[in-house]
Amino acid sequence: MLAFRGGDAGAFDALFHRWAAKLLRYLERMLRDGAAAEELVQETFLRVHGARDRYEPQARFSTWLYRIATNLALNELRRPRRRDPHASVDAEGALELVAGGPGTDDRVHARRMSEAVDRELAALPERQRAALWLTAVEGLPYAEVGRALDVSPQAVKSLVHRARTALAGRLQEEDGEVRR
Amino acid sequence: MTERSHPCVGWDEDLSALIDGELEPARRAAVEAHAASCARCTAQLEALRAVDARLAGIPLPEVEGRLSPPRISGEPPAAASVEGPSPVRSTRGEALRPRTAPPRSERRRAAWKTGAPVRIATAAGIVLALFWLLQPGRPNTPPPGGDPSPIAEAPETLDAATDEELALAMDLETVEDFEVIANLELLERLVALEGGRG
Question: What is the rounded CA–CA span in Å between residue B179 and residue B182?
Fold first, then answer.
């Protein structure tokens, strides 16, 4: 990031290639819409580029990046008349179920388990979802998640625990239904 | 022993903090020691850790060589952009759109510019409708047979606006982005004109 800030254009591409996949995975979870998530990855890096002079070296780049991405995602979720992407995801799963083939049962089971995580994540309140993901998956400390969400570390602790507890209960219920 | 009287009820959040490595050493030792002897906390810790394991199983999407860094205006296009976009797949396996469209902010600005006259007319219609509704001597019904005044036509102007135009007009981010304050001056002039008529 420091090289990029110093005018090294190649450093921007290096940053993009290092973080784009993680950012896309996070934004897909936040938005449940692959196309919108991809657009926000681009938008996030455009803003990183535009604000590079304001980057403070003592702050972790990941914190800065996720703060920008989280703000964009929360804005996107507040936009009126967002299209509901759930239908397309469900339809995709239904097509695979019809396809059949060797090992279908295992794949269908794995697919259902994976979809269950995504579905239950999507059902969490936005800030709980973001706090849990940034902590449990991206490994950011509470203090840095707090900076990304503009809340205190204590609030992050509470958000993460509520999200984790809710998800634990719902996944246990879903897993029970899948096994039946 | 009821759950409410259980000594560890009330500090469940510390179980999450334990998993996240966010407890001070002394507190961490106390929670670990308690959890080791408490069936409830042991089960709870196991369930919470299972959530993290499930989340960790969500794979990274394949973007290498497919999702290109955004082109910054004034800079030459990167090699990947010259080659053209290739299909991108999300972690759910769905095809993502190639990177040919300009960024969302640029598209929204362009959309605002092209639709500005319609939106200004819509906003003016809203102001006129409000002015009409708030007039102290406003009759409940329009005069029969009279020519409809521009004020009386205001609700029709509102009806003519599409849902998307109304949604865009109510989008706070858009309002900030496109400095509608400038349009407010126009609206204020319109209100002053209507006030002058009354």
Answer: 6
